[in-house]
Amino acid sequence: MNKAIKNIKPLGFPWETQDPFLFCVYHKDDYPKGNAQMGPDASLSGRNLGQDFDPSNAWRMYHGDTVPGFPQHPHRGFETVTVVPKGLVDHSDSLGAAGRFGNGDVQWMTAGKGVNHCEMFPLLKQDEENPLLLFQIWLNLPSKSKFVEPHFAMLWNEKIPVYKSDDGKTSVTVVAGNIGEVKAPAPAPDSWAADPAHEVAIWTIKMDANAEWELPKASAGVNRSIYFYQGESLTINDEVLQSHQCVELNPSETVSLKSGTSETRILMLQGKPIGEPVAKYGPFVMNTQDEIRQALQDYQRTQFGGWPWPKNDHVHPRERGRFAKHADGRLEEM
């Protein structure tokens, strides 16, 4: 194994990550045509509705029983960065905020002291299939920020910069961090990523067949992982990898990437570790078990603000375009 590579492991479910990240969930669903309720126009017979995670199926309902997705559920103590290259997501939360985003958009949500939200995958098209591809990345918050006010920001596809290699064969969508002068939009204000010294980077990399590209170096001590999820092969310096592998890299070593004979897709996650104890229980991520118990008690008592929507699996009208309505009433229409 060359000096650039620290570790290689297969991709599981969810994908394992390094501090400051908690994990990454990769959803790829070839949803069929939609029905009148924006669910699948197909039989749900035999599916374990509420727990439909069978990877042998071409698509899953997850916790939805009419519309695919994740009905009302709470979070505290971390952030979600939801990258949606294909398909649409409907967001609704306990603060009254809402949105519809996808087809290249990213939602950055700071759960902070606590929020309820739902994430549904409405199948809007009734005359053709509704494929979905998304990454949901859980990014930890340091102890000083675990009780900040909840917040969400939309990084619209049109405003997320794309780096192009000199030969044009590699393109990198810069969700967080920067490549030279190509700089991502500002992350959520209380995020670990908001301080440039933490070198947080979230990049989606597309390489043409037989392309070569050198990753820019980062500082020693930064955690860096790449997730090779599509393509025939990937060569890192002299190490040849097959698809569906995670590689932990030495950030201060030269890393040359070479794609195989087909288009290659990679997710890269990077950041300075927070380096604090992590206590997890389902949707809560704190520093101690006492804080987890407190989170459970607080949620039982307050429901993190309650639920202002008519259904736990709330979706927006079919004809609604991409939008974000914030808790303060500010509206973004795309």
From TrEMBL:
Taxonomic superkingdom: Bacteria
Originating organism: Marinoscillum luteum
Pfam families in alphabetical order: Pirin, Pirin_C
Domain Pirin N-terminal: 52-139
Segments forming domain Pirin C-terminal: 203-305
Cross-referenced CDD domains: cupin_pirin_C, cupin_pirin_N
Name of the protein: Pirin family protein
Gene3D superfamilies noted in UniProt: Jelly Rolls
Family according to the record: Belongs to the pirin family.
